[in-house]
Write a structure and sequence with these properties.
- This protein has a ten-stranded mixed β-sheet.
- Helices cover 22% and strands 29% of the residues.
- 39% of the residues are buried.
- Strand 2, helix 2 and strand 3 form a beta-alpha-beta unit.
- It is α/β, with parallel strands linked by helices.
Length: 248
């Protein structure tokens, strides 16, 4: 496998699912109607993180793979999924989201069923984004989407729309197109955060750019911005401007 989005020997060794198009990853958390519609109409591969297989099957699809420790996989779901699509990862040092994300190679992963339920599960998903910064992943929530900011991103968004930033660790960031520019400030938990910023401009749309000097900044946008975020994370040369895989 020589995909240009595979950037570490570890990822290649662990990969069980790969594609040149975005992949949908479904967790076992609460889904809203739009998420179920996404499963039903998704045209590429659908992966389930353990118990997320139940959501996929309920939507009338079979997951292309089920990855995790499989302790949340119901007997009914296990019986429905072919055995060669079940990937049992025994270790307990990572979550099912991390087990799945680390074994997918794709230009972009869309994740549903990882937010909105138990807070510890939601925080663990954010930890997973930080653990694998080399992966491009957007998590969909009930009202928002979020992703780990790459070194550089450009989005065309509606003027006045919300643009929130939440650091998971110290990150210095700059921006254009935001009402309150980031100005190269150092953002960090317990110090400076960037929630409830908004897109600047008095035109209908505005180009927004964000540059970060390290992985660790979450970008949080309304769900209406999903297409813009997907374009930002997959456009060239942005596809190649991603964080390196850390030593593991």
């Amino acid at each position: 496998m020589s995909h240009n989005f595979m950037n570490s020997e570890l990822a290649q060794k662990n990969t069980v699912v790969y594609d040149f198009t975005p992949i949908l990853l479904v967790g076992g958390g609460p889904l809203r109607a739009d998420d179920r519609d996404l499963i039903t109409g998704f045209s590429s591969k659908i992966i389930a993180a353990d118990g997320g297989a139940g959501h996929v099957i309920a939507a009338g699809r079979l997951p292309d793979a089920v990855i995790g420790d499989l302790d949340s996989l119901s007997d009914e779901a296990r019986a429905s999924v072919p055995a060669d699509r079940l990937y049992h990862v025994k270790e307990q040092d990572s979550t099912d989201f991390e087990k799945s994300l680390s074994r997918i190679e794709s230009p972009l992963v869309l994740g549903v069923g990882f937010t909105g339920g138990r807070l510890d599960h939601e925080l663990a998903a954010l930890h997973g984004l930080l653990t694998f910064p080399e992966k491009r992943c957007i998590l969909l929530g009930a009202e928002d989407i979020l992703f780990l900011a790459p070194p550089e991103s450009h989005m065309t968004l509606s003027a006045g729309s919300r643009f929130s930033l939440m650091p998971l660790c110290p990150v210095r960031a700059e921006s254009t197109g935001l009402h309150w520019p980031l100005n190269g400030n150092l953002f960090a938990p317990g110090a400076l955060i960037g929630t409830s910023n908004k897109v600047a401009g008095d035109q209908e749309e505005q180009r927004v750019s964000v540059n970060c000097d390290a992985p660790g900044m979450l970008v949080i946008l309304p769900r209406l911005a999903l297409k813009a975020a997907m374009a930002a994370l997959t456009e060239k040369p942005g596809l190649h401007a991603q964080w390196p895989a850390p030593e593991r």
